[in-house]
From TrEMBL:
Domain Solute-binding protein family 3/N-terminal: 35-254
InterPro entries: Solute-binding_3/MltF_N
Record's protein name: Putative amino-acid ABC transporter-binding protein HI_1080
Gene3D superfamilies: Periplasmic binding protein-like II
Record's signal peptide: 1-23
Organism whose genome encodes this protein: Xenorhabdus poinarii G6
Spans traversing the lipid bilayer: none
Amino acid sequence: MKKFLRLLLAGAAVLAISYPGYAGEDFDAIKATGVFKVGTEGTYPPFTYHDPSNNLTGFDVDIAREIARRLKVKAEFMEVKWDGLIAGLGAKRFDAVINQVGITPEREAKFSFSIPYTSAQVVLITRKNNSDIKTFTDIKGKRAAQSLTSNYGQLATSYGATLVSTDGFNQAIDLVATGRADVTLNDRLSFLDFKKQRPNAPVKIIAQQADASQSAVLLRKGDPELLNAVNQALQGMKDDGTYRRISEKYFGVDISK
């Protein structure tokens, strides 16, 4: 009898490890409520920001709304500072984070990623009159304006920069433009959009990494049904031209290519 109980307990332990919660639980809740809750910054143009009428908009916002439409539910956005987005997903404040979240091994160990929906190159941005910073290695000992837990913040630290905490892209650029920070490492697409809006801003790209990083929808582990549904939605958008139309709306080109 004791041996039988030990076998039952061992089997239960294996199931607990293999299936951390009911598979499909999150997706069932989304379908039941009719709402797909999305965590996003709202301060990261052109991906997630507020238009002149204060409406939340952007490339990632449109992608999220289209995913929700294909799931036959409505997208509901919760705006959170970058440093709280991943923790908020873990705490079940929302169902997904759609905010240019880079795919990293550390995040993959704790969360699930959809198929990538953007690829971006990291650029080094300095004040326009800068003359002493020419490469990424030159930022050692310099002040880099970054969100502390972002990929860009970690990269700046790896080059020896001292981080100046920011709430998002616009604040980082303003800190560099006003001389309160020496550099910011950020996304090339965001910078190009920024210069389109503010061509006279005293900032410039001084260097660019050759490798592109990929971003994807971040989900909690343990719900393969939701992951599969999000992947199907993203692939369908690329197949039927919806992704291209959203891309051209914000960037003027198809950034999937």
